[in-house]
Write a structure and sequence with these properties.
By secondary structure, the protein is mostly beta strands. The chain contains no helices and 20 strands. Helix content is 0%, strand content 57%.
Length: 237
């Protein structure tokens, strides 16, 4: 098993007043040639947007874009005619495909919204753009994996145009959890939303990330109450 740790404080960071943003991988003004992607995982941004502010209309194409609110409400509008608000517990996906224009705003005039925005390279290029969102219960990820993104349309989770799976889990202190990968040749990127966990004698703390390869299954132990986001992706695609 090979583990590459990205400590929280080593991420790219920008603060624009209305936006406080941290980049695990190279993005916008942050460029690190050693952090371009982890396999098909291209972007993992940790954003906080102040009340009444947001991202104006901008285009995307041929990218799978997943948004996971952690607190507050995020309002979405796009050129496909979708208008929606997502909150903690929701997961949103937009397959940009041949091209889509969208905007994202804080759904509150006063309270900040915090969310993770994740980009994954697609399996098929130039598909028809599509949008989906679903709500997941917090109690269904207590001390177990809760699937929130899947490449199988009949599975739990929003559908993604890539052989990728996303899971969340909330672990009590001292609790152990094992993850078995779906495919050989895949890797796992773990992002620790809260708390502390140990993976193969490697300790991770809040907002640390780790790319894990060369494993068929991975064991996690919570050093204190923890919330995990796990992303399994192809390492070559």
């Amino acid at each position: 098993m090979n583990i590459v740790v990205h400590p929280a404080h080593t991420r790219g960071h920008s603060h624009y007043g209305w936006l406080d943003t941290w980049h695990t991988f190279s993005f916008a003004h942050y460029f690190n040639p050693e952090r371009m992607n982890f396999g098909a995982l291209r972007v993992l941004n940790d954003d906080t947007v102040q009340g009444g502010k947001g991202f104006d209309r901008h285009p995307h194409e041929n990218m799978e874009i997943v948004s996971i609110p952690l607190a507050g409400a995020l309002e979405h509008q796009d050129s496909m005619g979708n208008r929606a608000v997502i909150r903690e517990g929701d997961v949103q996906i937009m397959s940009a495909g041949t091209g889509v224009v969208h905007a994202e705003y804080n759904g509150s005039a006063h309270e900040p919204v915090s969310f993770l925005q994740i980009w994954v390279f697609p399996k098929q290029q130039n598909i028809t753009p599509r949008y989906d969102q679903r709500t997941f219960r917090k109690e269904d990820r207590q001390n177990r994996w809760q699937q929130i993104v899947s490449p199988v349309q009949t599975d739990e989770g929003v559908w993604i145009n890539q052989d990728a799976w996303f899971y969340r889990a909330r672990l009590d202190e001292g609790r152990e959890l094992t993850y078995a990968l779906h495919r050989s040749g895949h890797g796992v990127y773990l992002f620790l939303i809260e708390g502390s966990v140990t993976v193969n004698d490697t300790m991770l703390n809040k907002r640390d990330g780790a790319g894990i390869s060369g494993a068929e299954k991975i064991d996690f132990t919570a050093n204190r109450p923890a919330e995990l986001l796990l992303i399994e992706v192809p390492l070559t695609f």
